[in-house]
Amino acid sequence: MKRLSLILTLFVSLIVHAQDPIRGVWITNTGSSVLNSRLQIREAVMQCKDQGLTDLFMVVWNNGKTMFPSQVMSQYVGQAQDPVFTGRDPLQEMIEEAHAVGLRVHAWMEFGFSYSYKDSNSIWNKKYPTWAGRNAAGNLLQKNGFYWWNALHAGPQQFLSELIEEIVLRYDIDGIQGDDRLPAMPSEGGYESETVGAYGNHGGDQRAAIDAKQPDWVQWRADKLSQFASQLYQKVKSTKPACWVTWSPSIYPWCKQEYLQDWPAWLRDGYADYVFPQLYRYNAAAYEQLLKDLNAQLTPDQKKKVFPGVLTSLGDGYQASRSLLDQFISLNRAYGYAGEVFFYYETLNRISGPLYTDTKN
Fold first, then answer.
1. Does residue 62 fall inside a structural domain?
2. In DSSP terms, which residues pair with 319 in a beta bridge?
3. Domain with 224 in it: what CATH number?
4. What is the pLDDT of residues 300-347, one digit of tens each?
5. Which of 114, 149, 262, 266 fits a disulfide with 222 by CB distance 3.0 to 4.6 angstroms?
6. Which residues does 331 contact at the CB level (< 8 Å), separation at least 6?
7. Domain region containing 144
8. Are 75 and 91 in contact (CB under 8 A)?
9. What is the pTM of this model?
């Protein structure tokens, strides 16, 4: 049975990579009203269809809450979903509306191993204090306002695994996606006594762990997160072989030094259907340099599984112009990438005319 399952998974993988180019967009509940009603979801889906997009990456886990009613969430914290969506299931609505017009929907685990933003008194910290990540000073692990779990701890790993399994089992979902927070952890983290002790038992020099960027210490923690990525991939594929598992990490090697994401290993070792590295830059010259770097990091076979992530707007008011987006798309084609994923939907809602006038673009 195991051999048959492996053969089926490999067969489905071959079908996956024979698909048309991915032209996607991230849809979040922050700085966007798309998920606030079914009508707004329908309008957004039609906008994406008109733009020539193929894939919608909808947030399902953000700021310690789910956008859909979750039995797993209820079991862990007694709250089924973000109260804003009580009485509705935006994920089911998105799937129904998107599938009706031929678009794929992916469950985007936006917050990953982060459990709150600028809130050290999160319900998660109160119920599961031993999950919290710690820095070298012993303080709660926090970076850029985001509070993080110890991503190497079995507790949060089990929770996220159960949450993903629930989505795959309950919904007609096309894919599951982790990003720059899944699997990830700021390299300032991992200083819980059990983590440092495990590193020492592995043969690592515990004195080296004083330096968050010490290469062996970085690699050991990154390898642990890669192992978790592999486990998630296998769990999804064993549950629903046709469901894609995709990742959207930051650029390499910065992502490994800062967030312990060794995503070239995920491609090399076969637990990524696709990777969408976040090539987030504000001008064409800087963006082109990242494309050059990316090409140097990938083998020809790996490149088939990679589509750049493109920054189109941010909550601080930044919005890329239509001409700049056209330049990004043209550069992607020039460097051999047949598609891209845009962050995030609100920009597409503000520009005129389709991004893709030819479905083969």
1. yes
2. 313
3. 3.20.20.80
4. 999 999 999 999 988 767 889 999 999 999 999 999 999 999 999 987
5. 262
6. 284, 287, 288, 291
7. 2-348
8. no
9. 0.92
